[in-house]
Design brief:
single chain, two-stranded antiparallel ribbon, globular
Length: about 525
Protein backbone atom coordinates (compact mmCIF):
# COMPACT_ATOMS: atom_id res chain seq x y z
CA UNK A 1 0.00 0.00 0.00
CA UNK A 2 1.26 3.49 -0.91
CA UNK A 3 -0.10 6.30 1.27
CA UNK A 4 -0.31 9.50 -0.78
CA UNK A 5 -2.51 11.54 1.56
CA UNK A 6 0.38 13.75 2.87
CA UNK A 7 1.05 14.96 -0.70
CA UNK A 8 -2.38 14.82 -2.35
CA UNK A 9 -5.84 14.71 -0.72
CA UNK A 10 -7.28 13.02 2.36
CA UNK A 11 -7.29 9.25 1.99
CA UNK A 12 -5.26 9.20 -1.24
CA UNK A 13 -3.46 5.90 -1.77
CA UNK A 14 -2.71 3.02 -4.10
CA UNK A 15 -2.57 -0.68 -3.35
CA UNK A 16 -4.18 -4.08 -3.80
CA UNK A 17 -5.46 -4.54 -0.26
CA UNK A 18 -8.62 -6.60 -0.90
CA UNK A 19 -9.18 -9.88 -2.72
CA UNK A 20 -11.55 -8.07 -5.08
CA UNK A 21 -8.81 -5.65 -6.16
CA UNK A 22 -6.14 -8.35 -6.39
CA UNK A 23 -8.08 -10.73 -8.64
CA UNK A 24 -9.47 -7.86 -10.73
CA UNK A 25 -5.96 -6.51 -11.26
CA UNK A 26 -4.52 -9.93 -12.19
CA UNK A 27 -7.10 -10.88 -14.81
CA UNK A 28 -7.20 -7.37 -16.29
CA UNK A 29 -3.41 -7.22 -16.50
CA UNK A 30 -3.27 -10.68 -18.10
CA UNK A 31 -5.80 -9.74 -20.77
CA UNK A 32 -4.01 -6.46 -21.53
CA UNK A 33 -0.67 -8.24 -21.93
CA UNK A 34 -2.13 -10.88 -24.27
CA UNK A 35 -3.90 -8.20 -26.31
CA UNK A 36 -0.63 -6.23 -26.54
CA UNK A 37 1.26 -9.31 -27.73
CA UNK A 38 -1.49 -10.03 -30.24
CA UNK A 39 -1.27 -6.42 -31.48
CA UNK A 40 2.40 -6.84 -32.38
CA UNK A 41 1.40 -9.11 -35.27
CA UNK A 42 -2.14 -7.90 -35.94
CA UNK A 43 -1.18 -4.21 -36.23
CA UNK A 44 2.25 -4.76 -37.80
CA UNK A 45 1.18 -3.42 -41.22
CA UNK A 46 -1.50 -1.02 -40.03
CA UNK A 47 -1.28 2.72 -40.54
CA UNK A 48 -0.70 5.05 -37.58
CA UNK A 49 0.82 2.36 -35.36
CA UNK A 50 2.42 4.90 -33.03
CA UNK A 51 -0.93 6.55 -32.41
CA UNK A 52 -2.49 3.16 -31.69
CA UNK A 53 0.18 2.25 -29.13
CA UNK A 54 -0.07 5.68 -27.49
CA UNK A 55 -3.80 5.35 -26.81
CA UNK A 56 -3.44 1.65 -26.00
CA UNK A 57 -0.84 2.47 -23.34
CA UNK A 58 -2.85 5.33 -21.87
CA UNK A 59 -5.99 3.18 -21.63
CA UNK A 60 -3.96 0.42 -19.98
CA UNK A 61 -2.47 2.85 -17.44
CA UNK A 62 -5.89 4.28 -16.57
CA UNK A 63 -7.39 0.80 -16.14
CA UNK A 64 -4.62 -0.32 -13.79
CA UNK A 65 -4.82 2.93 -11.80
CA UNK A 66 -8.54 2.67 -11.10
CA UNK A 67 -8.23 -0.95 -9.96
CA UNK A 68 -5.45 -0.13 -7.49
CA UNK A 69 -7.11 3.07 -6.23
CA UNK A 70 -7.84 3.22 -2.51
CA UNK A 71 -9.86 6.41 -2.78
CA UNK A 72 -12.55 7.79 -5.06
CA UNK A 73 -10.47 10.56 -6.66
CA UNK A 74 -7.73 8.16 -7.76
CA UNK A 75 -10.43 5.87 -9.16
CA UNK A 76 -12.01 8.79 -11.01
CA UNK A 77 -8.70 9.93 -12.49
CA UNK A 78 -7.92 6.43 -13.74
CA UNK A 79 -11.47 6.03 -15.03
CA UNK A 80 -11.23 9.32 -16.97
CA UNK A 81 -7.82 8.53 -18.48
CA UNK A 82 -9.01 5.10 -19.58
CA UNK A 83 -12.33 6.32 -21.00
CA UNK A 84 -10.96 9.29 -22.94
CA UNK A 85 -7.94 7.38 -24.26
CA UNK A 86 -10.16 4.59 -25.57
CA UNK A 87 -11.62 7.14 -27.99
CA UNK A 88 -8.33 6.98 -29.91
CA UNK A 89 -8.73 3.21 -30.24
CA UNK A 90 -12.31 3.48 -31.50
CA UNK A 91 -11.48 6.01 -34.24
CA UNK A 92 -8.15 4.39 -35.16
CA UNK A 93 -9.13 3.44 -38.73
CA UNK A 94 -10.24 7.01 -39.47
CA UNK A 95 -13.12 6.08 -41.78
CA UNK A 96 -16.62 7.50 -41.58
CA UNK A 97 -18.00 4.64 -39.49
CA UNK A 98 -15.17 4.91 -36.97
CA UNK A 99 -15.56 8.68 -36.63
CA UNK A 100 -19.30 8.33 -36.12
CA UNK A 101 -18.83 5.60 -33.52
CA UNK A 102 -16.08 7.59 -31.83
CA UNK A 103 -18.26 10.69 -31.62
CA UNK A 104 -21.04 8.74 -29.89
CA UNK A 105 -18.56 7.01 -27.58
CA UNK A 106 -16.90 10.29 -26.56
CA UNK A 107 -20.22 12.04 -25.95
CA UNK A 108 -21.46 9.28 -23.66
CA UNK A 109 -18.07 8.91 -21.95
CA UNK A 110 -18.03 12.60 -21.01
CA UNK A 111 -21.65 12.47 -19.83
CA UNK A 112 -20.83 9.42 -17.71
CA UNK A 113 -17.81 11.11 -16.16
CA UNK A 114 -19.83 14.22 -15.31
CA UNK A 115 -22.51 12.12 -13.62
CA UNK A 116 -19.90 10.13 -11.72
CA UNK A 117 -18.13 13.33 -10.65
CA UNK A 118 -21.42 14.70 -9.30
CA UNK A 119 -21.95 11.50 -7.31
CA UNK A 120 -18.36 11.72 -6.02
CA UNK A 121 -18.92 15.28 -4.77
CA UNK A 122 -22.14 14.27 -2.98
CA UNK A 123 -20.43 11.30 -1.31
CA UNK A 124 -17.39 13.35 -0.29
CA UNK A 125 -19.65 16.02 1.19
CA UNK A 126 -21.54 13.42 3.20
CA UNK A 127 -18.21 11.93 4.40
CA UNK A 128 -16.88 15.31 5.64
CA UNK A 129 -14.28 15.64 2.90
CA UNK A 130 -12.90 12.09 3.12
CA UNK A 131 -12.36 10.18 -0.13
CA UNK A 132 -11.08 6.75 0.95
CA UNK A 133 -13.31 3.71 0.53
CA UNK A 134 -13.26 2.80 4.23
CA UNK A 135 -14.70 6.17 5.24
CA UNK A 136 -17.40 5.89 2.61
CA UNK A 137 -18.49 2.50 3.93
CA UNK A 138 -19.76 4.21 7.08
CA UNK A 139 -21.72 6.98 5.33
CA UNK A 140 -25.38 6.32 4.39
CA UNK A 141 -26.48 6.82 0.80
CA UNK A 142 -29.27 8.90 -0.70
CA UNK A 143 -31.35 8.16 -3.79
CA UNK A 144 -29.81 10.93 -5.91
CA UNK A 145 -26.26 9.65 -5.27
CA UNK A 146 -27.31 6.08 -6.11
CA UNK A 147 -28.97 7.19 -9.36
CA UNK A 148 -25.97 9.28 -10.44
CA UNK A 149 -23.52 6.48 -9.63
CA UNK A 150 -25.47 3.76 -11.42
CA UNK A 151 -25.97 5.93 -14.51
CA UNK A 152 -22.41 7.27 -14.65
CA UNK A 153 -20.74 3.89 -14.21
CA UNK A 154 -23.44 2.05 -16.17
CA UNK A 155 -22.53 4.02 -19.29
CA UNK A 156 -19.15 2.30 -19.12
CA UNK A 157 -20.44 -1.12 -18.00
CA UNK A 158 -22.80 -1.25 -20.99
CA UNK A 159 -25.97 -2.85 -19.65
CA UNK A 160 -29.37 -1.92 -21.12
CA UNK A 161 -30.36 0.90 -21.74
CA UNK A 162 -26.88 2.41 -21.35
CA UNK A 163 -25.36 0.06 -23.92
CA UNK A 164 -25.91 2.19 -27.02
CA UNK A 165 -22.22 2.88 -27.69
CA UNK A 166 -21.13 -0.77 -27.60
CA UNK A 167 -22.59 -2.00 -30.95
CA UNK A 168 -21.06 1.05 -32.67
CA UNK A 169 -17.60 1.08 -31.04
CA UNK A 170 -16.69 -2.62 -31.26
CA UNK A 171 -16.96 -3.00 -35.06
CA UNK A 172 -14.94 0.20 -35.56
CA UNK A 173 -12.06 -0.55 -33.17
CA UNK A 174 -9.23 -2.98 -34.04
CA UNK A 175 -9.72 -6.50 -32.70
CA UNK A 176 -7.18 -6.24 -29.81
CA UNK A 177 -8.76 -2.96 -28.74
CA UNK A 178 -12.22 -4.57 -28.79
CA UNK A 179 -10.88 -7.44 -26.68
CA UNK A 180 -9.73 -5.15 -23.85
CA UNK A 181 -12.69 -2.83 -24.32
CA UNK A 182 -15.12 -5.68 -23.65
CA UNK A 183 -12.97 -7.84 -21.41
CA UNK A 184 -11.37 -5.24 -19.15
CA UNK A 185 -12.66 -1.70 -19.64
CA UNK A 186 -16.38 -2.30 -19.22
CA UNK A 187 -15.50 -4.20 -16.03
CA UNK A 188 -14.30 -0.86 -14.64
CA UNK A 189 -17.93 0.22 -14.44
CA UNK A 190 -18.81 -3.01 -12.63
CA UNK A 191 -15.95 -2.57 -10.15
CA UNK A 192 -17.02 1.03 -9.53
CA UNK A 193 -20.56 -0.05 -8.67
CA UNK A 194 -19.15 -2.33 -5.96
CA UNK A 195 -16.67 0.24 -4.61
CA UNK A 196 -18.84 3.38 -4.69
CA UNK A 197 -22.00 1.79 -3.27
CA UNK A 198 -21.36 0.02 0.07
CA UNK A 199 -23.04 -3.32 0.67
CA UNK A 200 -25.74 -3.46 3.32
CA UNK A 201 -26.86 0.16 3.05
CA UNK A 202 -30.56 0.27 4.02
CA UNK A 203 -31.55 2.66 1.22
CA UNK A 204 -29.64 0.63 -1.37
CA UNK A 205 -31.81 -2.41 -0.60
CA UNK A 206 -34.77 -0.71 -2.29
CA UNK A 207 -32.80 -0.70 -5.55
CA UNK A 208 -31.83 -4.38 -5.49
CA UNK A 209 -35.07 -5.85 -6.98
CA UNK A 210 -35.13 -3.29 -9.78
CA UNK A 211 -31.46 -3.87 -10.61
CA UNK A 212 -32.01 -7.64 -10.71
CA UNK A 213 -34.90 -7.17 -13.14
CA UNK A 214 -32.79 -4.75 -15.19
CA UNK A 215 -30.02 -7.34 -15.34
CA UNK A 216 -32.36 -10.05 -16.62
CA UNK A 217 -33.85 -7.70 -19.20
CA UNK A 218 -30.38 -6.70 -20.41
CA UNK A 219 -29.42 -10.38 -20.67
CA UNK A 220 -32.42 -11.15 -22.88
CA UNK A 221 -32.31 -7.95 -24.90
CA UNK A 222 -28.66 -8.44 -25.86
CA UNK A 223 -29.40 -11.83 -27.39
CA UNK A 224 -32.56 -10.82 -29.25
CA UNK A 225 -30.87 -7.72 -30.68
CA UNK A 226 -27.83 -9.73 -31.82
CA UNK A 227 -30.03 -12.01 -33.94
CA UNK A 228 -30.84 -9.03 -36.17
CA UNK A 229 -27.20 -8.48 -37.19
CA UNK A 230 -24.79 -10.45 -39.34
CA UNK A 231 -21.46 -8.74 -38.56
CA UNK A 232 -19.54 -10.90 -36.06
CA UNK A 233 -18.19 -8.01 -33.98
CA UNK A 234 -21.65 -6.45 -33.66
CA UNK A 235 -23.01 -9.80 -32.47
CA UNK A 236 -20.18 -10.02 -29.94
CA UNK A 237 -20.96 -6.48 -28.76
CA UNK A 238 -24.56 -7.43 -28.04
CA UNK A 239 -23.26 -10.57 -26.37
CA UNK A 240 -21.38 -8.31 -23.97
CA UNK A 241 -24.62 -6.45 -23.25
CA UNK A 242 -26.21 -9.79 -22.42
CA UNK A 243 -23.38 -11.09 -20.24
CA UNK A 244 -23.06 -7.82 -18.34
CA UNK A 245 -26.72 -8.25 -17.47
CA UNK A 246 -25.85 -11.37 -15.44
CA UNK A 247 -22.93 -9.56 -13.84
CA UNK A 248 -25.31 -6.74 -12.89
CA UNK A 249 -27.51 -9.28 -11.12
CA UNK A 250 -24.50 -10.38 -9.06
CA UNK A 251 -23.62 -6.75 -8.28
CA UNK A 252 -27.15 -6.16 -7.02
CA UNK A 253 -26.98 -9.30 -4.88
CA UNK A 254 -23.60 -8.12 -3.53
CA UNK A 255 -25.33 -4.99 -2.19
CA UNK A 256 -27.34 -7.16 0.21
CA UNK A 257 -26.19 -8.45 3.59
CA UNK A 258 -24.91 -11.66 1.91
CA UNK A 259 -22.08 -9.88 0.07
CA UNK A 260 -19.48 -12.37 1.38
CA UNK A 261 -21.21 -15.23 -0.47
CA UNK A 262 -21.80 -13.27 -3.67
CA UNK A 263 -18.40 -11.63 -4.22
CA UNK A 264 -16.51 -14.86 -5.11
CA UNK A 265 -19.08 -15.69 -7.81
CA UNK A 266 -18.99 -12.09 -9.09
CA UNK A 267 -15.18 -12.13 -9.32
CA UNK A 268 -15.23 -15.52 -11.05
CA UNK A 269 -17.85 -14.36 -13.57
CA UNK A 270 -15.93 -11.16 -14.38
CA UNK A 271 -12.62 -13.00 -14.86
CA UNK A 272 -14.15 -15.82 -16.92
CA UNK A 273 -16.04 -13.40 -19.16
CA UNK A 274 -12.91 -11.28 -19.67
CA UNK A 275 -10.82 -14.18 -20.99
CA UNK A 276 -13.61 -15.80 -23.03
CA UNK A 277 -14.81 -12.59 -24.66
CA UNK A 278 -11.25 -11.43 -25.25
CA UNK A 279 -10.48 -14.68 -27.09
CA UNK A 280 -13.63 -14.35 -29.21
CA UNK A 281 -12.87 -10.78 -30.26
CA UNK A 282 -9.29 -11.70 -31.17
CA UNK A 283 -10.55 -14.66 -33.20
CA UNK A 284 -13.13 -12.47 -34.96
CA UNK A 285 -10.39 -10.03 -35.94
CA UNK A 286 -8.27 -12.73 -37.59
CA UNK A 287 -11.33 -14.39 -39.13
CA UNK A 288 -12.22 -11.15 -40.93
CA UNK A 289 -8.76 -10.69 -42.49
CA UNK A 290 -7.86 -14.00 -44.19
CA UNK A 291 -8.97 -17.59 -44.83
CA UNK A 292 -8.06 -19.77 -41.85
CA UNK A 293 -7.10 -23.44 -41.49
CA UNK A 294 -9.84 -25.70 -40.18
CA UNK A 295 -8.24 -26.29 -36.77
CA UNK A 296 -8.63 -22.59 -35.99
CA UNK A 297 -12.30 -23.27 -35.28
CA UNK A 298 -11.18 -24.58 -31.88
CA UNK A 299 -10.23 -21.03 -30.97
CA UNK A 300 -13.87 -20.07 -31.44
CA UNK A 301 -15.76 -23.05 -30.09
CA UNK A 302 -13.88 -23.47 -26.80
CA UNK A 303 -14.65 -19.96 -25.44
CA UNK A 304 -18.11 -19.99 -27.05
CA UNK A 305 -19.05 -23.29 -25.37
CA UNK A 306 -17.67 -21.97 -22.08
CA UNK A 307 -19.97 -18.94 -22.27
CA UNK A 308 -22.84 -21.25 -23.24
CA UNK A 309 -22.20 -23.02 -19.90
CA UNK A 310 -21.45 -26.43 -21.38
CA UNK A 311 -20.88 -29.02 -18.60
CA UNK A 312 -17.36 -29.12 -17.09
CA UNK A 313 -16.63 -25.54 -18.24
CA UNK A 314 -16.10 -22.43 -16.17
CA UNK A 315 -19.32 -20.95 -17.49
CA UNK A 316 -21.24 -23.95 -16.17
CA UNK A 317 -19.69 -23.53 -12.72
CA UNK A 318 -20.55 -19.84 -12.60
CA UNK A 319 -24.14 -20.29 -13.81
CA UNK A 320 -24.54 -23.04 -11.19
CA UNK A 321 -23.28 -20.66 -8.52
CA UNK A 322 -25.61 -17.89 -9.65
CA UNK A 323 -28.58 -20.24 -9.66
CA UNK A 324 -27.68 -21.45 -6.16
CA UNK A 325 -27.48 -17.86 -4.90
CA UNK A 326 -30.89 -16.99 -6.30
CA UNK A 327 -32.51 -20.11 -4.90
CA UNK A 328 -30.91 -20.08 -1.43
CA UNK A 329 -30.50 -16.46 -0.38
CA UNK A 330 -33.42 -14.23 0.51
CA UNK A 331 -33.77 -11.70 -2.28
CA UNK A 332 -35.26 -8.45 -0.94
CA UNK A 333 -38.45 -7.03 -2.36
CA UNK A 334 -41.17 -8.70 -4.41
CA UNK A 335 -38.98 -11.05 -6.48
CA UNK A 336 -39.88 -14.72 -6.78
CA UNK A 337 -36.80 -16.95 -6.62
CA UNK A 338 -38.44 -19.77 -8.60
CA UNK A 339 -39.18 -17.42 -11.48
CA UNK A 340 -35.62 -16.05 -11.36
CA UNK A 341 -34.03 -19.49 -11.57
CA UNK A 342 -36.35 -20.29 -14.49
CA UNK A 343 -35.18 -17.12 -16.20
CA UNK A 344 -31.61 -18.33 -15.86
CA UNK A 345 -32.51 -21.48 -17.80
CA UNK A 346 -34.20 -19.35 -20.47
CA UNK A 347 -31.10 -17.15 -20.53
CA UNK A 348 -28.89 -20.18 -21.18
CA UNK A 349 -31.09 -21.10 -24.17
CA UNK A 350 -30.85 -17.56 -25.55
CA UNK A 351 -27.08 -17.48 -25.08
CA UNK A 352 -26.74 -20.72 -27.03
CA UNK A 353 -28.85 -19.24 -29.85
CA UNK A 354 -26.59 -16.18 -29.94
CA UNK A 355 -23.38 -18.17 -30.36
CA UNK A 356 -24.88 -20.50 -32.95
CA UNK A 357 -25.90 -17.38 -34.87
CA UNK A 358 -22.37 -16.01 -34.43
CA UNK A 359 -20.88 -19.26 -35.74
CA UNK A 360 -22.99 -18.96 -38.89
CA UNK A 361 -21.85 -15.34 -39.39
CA UNK A 362 -18.19 -16.32 -39.00
CA UNK A 363 -18.59 -19.19 -41.48
CA UNK A 364 -20.20 -16.83 -44.00
CA UNK A 365 -17.30 -14.45 -43.56
CA UNK A 366 -14.84 -17.26 -44.28
CA UNK A 367 -16.78 -18.30 -47.40
CA UNK A 368 -16.55 -14.76 -48.77
CA UNK A 369 -12.80 -14.61 -48.10
CA UNK A 370 -12.26 -18.03 -49.67
CA UNK A 371 -14.16 -17.04 -52.82
CA UNK A 372 -12.09 -13.87 -53.04
CA UNK A 373 -8.59 -15.17 -52.18
CA UNK A 374 -8.86 -18.94 -52.59
CA UNK A 375 -8.04 -21.57 -49.99
CA UNK A 376 -6.19 -20.72 -46.80
CA UNK A 377 -2.48 -20.15 -47.50
CA UNK A 378 0.29 -21.78 -45.50
CA UNK A 379 0.32 -20.19 -42.02
CA UNK A 380 3.04 -17.58 -41.58
CA UNK A 381 4.78 -16.29 -38.47
CA UNK A 382 2.06 -13.67 -37.81
CA UNK A 383 -0.71 -16.28 -37.82
CA UNK A 384 1.27 -18.60 -35.55
CA UNK A 385 1.92 -15.71 -33.16
CA UNK A 386 -1.75 -14.75 -33.06
CA UNK A 387 -2.70 -18.39 -32.52
CA UNK A 388 -0.26 -18.60 -29.60
CA UNK A 389 -1.91 -15.58 -27.96
CA UNK A 390 -5.33 -17.17 -28.36
CA UNK A 391 -4.00 -20.44 -26.97
CA UNK A 392 -2.87 -18.65 -23.80
CA UNK A 393 -6.40 -17.39 -23.19
CA UNK A 394 -7.89 -20.83 -23.86
CA UNK A 395 -5.48 -22.48 -21.42
CA UNK A 396 -6.52 -19.99 -18.75
CA UNK A 397 -10.20 -20.76 -19.46
CA UNK A 398 -9.53 -24.48 -19.03
CA UNK A 399 -7.45 -23.90 -15.88
CA UNK A 400 -9.91 -21.60 -14.09
CA UNK A 401 -12.71 -24.03 -13.15
CA UNK A 402 -10.42 -26.74 -11.75
CA UNK A 403 -7.45 -24.92 -10.23
CA UNK A 404 -8.79 -21.54 -9.09
CA UNK A 405 -10.18 -21.74 -5.57
CA UNK A 406 -13.36 -19.61 -6.04
CA UNK A 407 -14.51 -21.93 -8.86
CA UNK A 408 -13.33 -25.37 -7.71
CA UNK A 409 -16.31 -26.16 -5.50
CA UNK A 410 -18.77 -24.85 -8.08
CA UNK A 411 -17.12 -26.99 -10.77
CA UNK A 412 -17.43 -30.14 -8.68
CA UNK A 413 -21.15 -29.51 -8.34
CA UNK A 414 -21.56 -29.74 -12.13
CA UNK A 415 -20.33 -33.36 -12.24
CA UNK A 416 -23.63 -34.81 -11.01
CA UNK A 417 -25.86 -36.20 -13.79
CA UNK A 418 -28.86 -33.98 -12.93
CA UNK A 419 -26.61 -30.94 -13.24
CA UNK A 420 -25.12 -32.19 -16.52
CA UNK A 421 -28.58 -32.66 -18.01
CA UNK A 422 -29.81 -29.28 -16.73
CA UNK A 423 -26.80 -27.56 -18.29
CA UNK A 424 -26.93 -29.48 -21.59
CA UNK A 425 -30.67 -29.23 -22.21
CA UNK A 426 -30.67 -25.52 -23.27
CA UNK A 427 -27.88 -26.18 -25.80
CA UNK A 428 -29.68 -29.18 -27.30
CA UNK A 429 -32.91 -27.17 -27.52
CA UNK A 430 -31.08 -24.25 -29.18
CA UNK A 431 -29.58 -26.57 -31.83
CA UNK A 432 -33.04 -28.03 -32.50
CA UNK A 433 -34.59 -24.56 -32.86
CA UNK A 434 -31.87 -23.43 -35.27
CA UNK A 435 -32.35 -26.60 -37.35
CA UNK A 436 -36.13 -26.05 -37.51
CA UNK A 437 -35.69 -22.37 -38.40
CA UNK A 438 -33.38 -23.22 -41.30
CA UNK A 439 -35.57 -26.08 -42.47
CA UNK A 440 -38.68 -23.91 -42.44
CA UNK A 441 -36.67 -20.88 -43.69
CA UNK A 442 -38.02 -18.61 -41.00
CA UNK A 443 -36.69 -15.11 -41.58
CA UNK A 444 -37.84 -11.59 -40.93
CA UNK A 445 -38.07 -9.10 -43.82
CA UNK A 446 -34.66 -7.91 -45.01
CA UNK A 447 -35.29 -4.39 -43.73
CA UNK A 448 -35.12 -5.66 -40.12
CA UNK A 449 -31.48 -6.76 -40.39
CA UNK A 450 -28.28 -4.72 -39.97
CA UNK A 451 -30.10 -1.47 -39.33
CA UNK A 452 -28.26 1.59 -38.03
CA UNK A 453 -29.21 2.60 -34.54
CA UNK A 454 -31.47 5.63 -34.20
CA UNK A 455 -29.16 6.86 -31.46
CA UNK A 456 -26.67 7.92 -34.14
CA UNK A 457 -29.15 10.61 -35.19
CA UNK A 458 -29.32 11.75 -31.57
CA UNK A 459 -25.53 11.86 -31.51
CA UNK A 460 -25.44 14.05 -34.62
CA UNK A 461 -28.12 16.34 -33.18
CA UNK A 462 -26.10 16.67 -29.96
CA UNK A 463 -23.00 17.54 -31.99
CA UNK A 464 -24.88 20.36 -33.71
CA UNK A 465 -25.81 21.81 -30.33
CA UNK A 466 -22.25 22.23 -29.11
CA UNK A 467 -20.60 22.57 -32.53
CA UNK A 468 -22.91 24.59 -34.84
CA UNK A 469 -22.16 24.37 -38.52
CA UNK A 470 -22.56 28.10 -39.14
CA UNK A 471 -20.21 29.90 -36.79
CA UNK A 472 -19.88 33.69 -36.60
CA UNK A 473 -16.90 35.12 -38.40
CA UNK A 474 -15.53 38.62 -38.42
CA UNK A 475 -16.43 40.54 -41.59
CA UNK A 476 -13.66 40.55 -44.14
CA UNK A 477 -12.66 43.89 -45.68
CA UNK A 478 -12.35 43.76 -49.44
CA UNK A 479 -9.10 45.56 -50.27
CA UNK A 480 -6.97 44.99 -53.36
CA UNK A 481 -3.48 44.92 -51.87
CA UNK A 482 -1.91 44.09 -55.25
CA UNK A 483 -3.34 47.19 -56.90
CA UNK A 484 -2.11 49.36 -54.01
CA UNK A 485 1.38 47.93 -54.35
CA UNK A 486 1.48 48.71 -58.07
CA UNK A 487 0.37 52.30 -57.43
CA UNK A 488 3.17 52.82 -54.88
CA UNK A 489 5.70 51.42 -57.32
CA UNK A 490 4.64 53.95 -59.95
CA UNK A 491 5.00 56.82 -57.46
CA UNK A 492 8.45 55.74 -56.25
CA UNK A 493 11.51 57.37 -57.91
CA UNK A 494 13.76 55.38 -60.23
CA UNK A 495 16.62 55.17 -57.74
CA UNK A 496 14.48 53.85 -54.88
CA UNK A 497 16.28 50.48 -54.87
CA UNK A 498 19.76 51.94 -54.57
CA UNK A 499 18.58 54.44 -51.97
CA UNK A 500 17.01 51.67 -49.89
CA UNK A 501 20.18 49.56 -50.08
CA UNK A 502 22.31 52.50 -48.93
CA UNK A 503 19.97 53.22 -46.03
CA UNK A 504 20.06 49.56 -44.96
CA UNK A 505 23.90 49.54 -45.07
CA UNK A 506 24.09 52.66 -42.86
CA UNK A 507 21.73 51.08 -40.31
CA UNK A 508 23.80 47.89 -40.16
CA UNK A 509 27.06 49.82 -39.65
CA UNK A 510 25.47 51.94 -36.93
CA UNK A 511 24.22 48.83 -35.16
CA UNK A 512 27.66 47.17 -35.33
CA UNK A 513 29.36 50.31 -33.94
CA UNK A 514 26.83 50.44 -31.08
CA UNK A 515 27.47 46.81 -30.14
Amino acid sequence: MIDLSPWLWPGAGLGLVTELQQVWWYFSLSLWLVAAAFSLAFMAKAAHKRRYWLFFGLSFAGNMLLIGALDAISFYLGFSVMSLSAYGLVVHSGDKTARRAGRLYLQLAIIGELLLFAALILRASAADGQYDWQSWQQVPLDHLTILLTITGLGLKAGFWPLHIWLPQAHPAAPAPASAVLSGAMIKAGVLGLVMFLPAGDPLLQYWVPYMVCLGFFSAGFGVLASLLYRQPKVILAYSSVSQVGYILILVALAWTANAAAVLPVLIAYAAHHAFAKGALFLFAGVNAKQPLPGYWQLFFWLPALALMAIPLSGGAAIKTGLKSLLSEMSVPGWLNTDILTGLLTLGALLTALLFLHLAAALRQQQRELTSRYGLAPAPGFALYWQGACLLVLLLVLIWLPWQWQPMQQLSLQTLAWPKIWALSFPLFLAVLLVYIARWRQWRLPATYYDRNSAVLLWSLWLKRLYQPQRQWQAPRLKFNWRAAERALNRLAPANVVSSSALLLLIMLLAGAAFL
